[in-house]
Each structure stands twice: as C-alpha cells, then as structure tokens.
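Dear support,

I submitted the protein below through the web form. The confirmation email said the job was done, but the results page showed an empty box. After a refresh the structure appeared. I'm attaching both so you can tell me whether what I see now is the final result or a partial one.
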Amino acid sequence: MEIRVPYGRSFLTANIPAQFGVDLIEPPEVPAAVNPLAVVGAALDDLLGGLNWADFNNAASVSIAVNDKTRPVPHPQLLPPLLERLSALGIPDSAITFYVAVGTHPPMIPAEFSSILPAEILGRYRVVSHDSENPNMLVNLGQTVRETPIWVNKAYYESDFKIVVGNLEPHQFVGFSGGVKSAAIGLAGLTTINHNHALMTHPDSQLGEYETNPARQDVEEIGQKIGTHLALNAILNQNKQIVYALAGDPRAVMRAGISLSRKVCQVGVPARYGLVISSPGGHPKDINIYQAQKGLAHAALVTRPGGTIILAAACPEGTGSPHYEDWMAGKSSYAEVIALFNAEGFHIGPHKAYQIARDASKVRFLFCSEMDESFARSLLLNPVRDLQTAIDLSLADLQPGERIGVLPHASSTIPYVQE
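What the results page shows now:
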C-alpha cells in the first residue's frame, strides 16, 4: 500500500507491505465554504457576545494582531471584509496598525511581511512586528491569579479598538488556539510567555480542553487585562480552507467555535498503534522543529508505550529557536534532558527539548527532515535519511496483529483512543 503525507510544500510517499493493516487517522473530510468572503462577511454582520460595531464609532486608533509566518491563516479572505467594516465606521487607513504576533519567535522583518499579508494591505496600512524581548515595546499590566506577570505590546494595548485575527484550532497544551491568544501570547513579553507556558506541565493543560485548562484560562485572563475587544477567527479543514468563520467577543467566539473545531479536527481510533507515521501537516506547520514538535506530541496520544513514531517534517528553517539549540548542546539522552529541565525550572526554548524528550522517551522515535543529519542527531532527533527507510526499520518491531496509523495532519488533529 502506498501512503502519502504532507512534507514542506509537497508530499512524501512510501510503501507498506500488504500484510500490514493501515489506518488513516483523519477526521471526515469537511468541504470548504463555497464563498469564504461571504462567510467571513456574515460573521462580521452577526457579532457574538453582544458586541456592536456602533460601540467603536469614535475609535481614533485601531490595532489588529495577526499571526506570523508559522501559522496558515487565510488573511486574504479574513482581512478585506474586516477592513470594510472599519472603513464604514469612518476610521481612516492611517488610524489602523497591524501587529505581527510572533510570540517568542524571531521578529519578522518588513521584507517578510508579504508572506503573510496581501500587497494591497501592505500598501495601505502600517505593519509592525512584535519583539517579545524588546522592553521598549512592552507595558506591565500586573499579574494573573496564577501569578503570570503581564507584559504586553504597549502600542497595541493603548489602542482604542483592539482586534485579533487568526485560526481556531487544536493546541497541544492550551487546548485550542484562537480568541485572545494572538494578543495575550503573540504580543506578550518573554517573561509572560515563559510563565504561562510553564503551566503546560499541569495535568489539565491538555489538547482539546478549554474551560478546565489552566494554561488556556491564564491566556483568557491576560486577554481580559489587555482589553481585547474583538476576535475574528477561521476554522479550517485539513486543506487549510475556510469552513467556518466567527467574530465578536473573544470568549463568545471560543465557546461557539470549539464545538465546530471538534467536528473538523477530532477523530477516534479503536486502540493504540505500534507504529504511527506522523506529519504536522506540511508548510508552515513543519517550517521548523519549534512547530513540527506538535506532530510528535499528537502522535504520542495514540501510540503504545514502546511503539514507534516516525515524524516526517521538512524543517527548512532548522529549529526555529536559538534558545533550544543552545540548551541542547552536549545533552546525551532524553533522561538527562528531562532531569535537567525539571531541576532548572521552566524556560522558553528548553521547553521544546523537554516536550520532545517527554514523548520520545516512551517510544522509538525516528525523524525524516531536510535538516543536516549530524545536527539533528546532536538534538537527539534520531534522523533517518528517508521515509521508506524509517518504515522498513520499524516494521520488525510490530507485534502480531498490530495495525499502522498514518496521521497526515497531526498538528490540527485531535486523535483519541475510543473507550
């Protein structure tokens, strides 16, 4: 049987002998909206949570948080209808600023803005990239009940009308992305993100959990302190096409959108697999290790202890985190990574090493990428030169009767073992 998984901007193929059963771990295909601009427009016409456009008639400044190049947000469909509404309020182009919400990722340079925003927007509006490590960009708003210090982009916070635009989809420890997250994390300071992400070790900080998820509720409180007014979120199918759009009060958007996201992203399997072949979903979800790690984490949810996970992720931009690379220097085992991380306490960058070690230590982990093999090996990623070789190495470890799982869009899929 031939299998095909997304890899960068293309696909990888490999063959599995006929005697092995193969399951495609993919939710039912959901068709894209026939007219995505109309779907977005309808969402903006019917704001959730009691929000009203008339509330912002007198806004002298508008800030719009947009995701960076690591997220496949359909800005060409989301932004034009939104900007039309702002224009209808009498808000001039000069009063609107886009803030690229990079979180702890490196700030985007102006030459890269065209990779996320249409040319007509770049030609009309001011665009600024956030920098979580630039203290001159930040303002302090106190702390959350979980003692997360709130440092956020000062200019965004001081705007009269604060908007977030992004996707609502599964997230490995915040439960779901979307809502205020693009501002609360994407436009936050490093200290804030570090403290919030430390909550990922809490047992309730799980993929697909919202109301009881401490990491996500911490994000909600940060967003509330910022005063983010409106969220415009898309829910995409596995082809990165708009299926649904929601707009309004950020919490109302989350509560209405999560059930819709589950329809698109959640899938049950009958039992854990001895071998899972996982892809984060291609570009940009496998642009670097920082993003591709989610493909390992989600595959681990349906892989038996001692089984094998093959992660196929191009990673053309390497790790995506100098902090992660520096911290991993000289590490020789997953046990050492876990022990040192626990001893030192949570830090952004090293947390990726911990997440990888946490899951890879329970299985046989093999990695197919464009990265230099010696470099990948130094990061304990166990590189294999191609997908077919990785599969051939893994088949002998399967127990009698075990099936193979193929998870082609791991980062946007919630796989679970059915009771």
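Response: this is the final, complete result; the empty box was a page-load delay. The radius of gyration is 21 Å.
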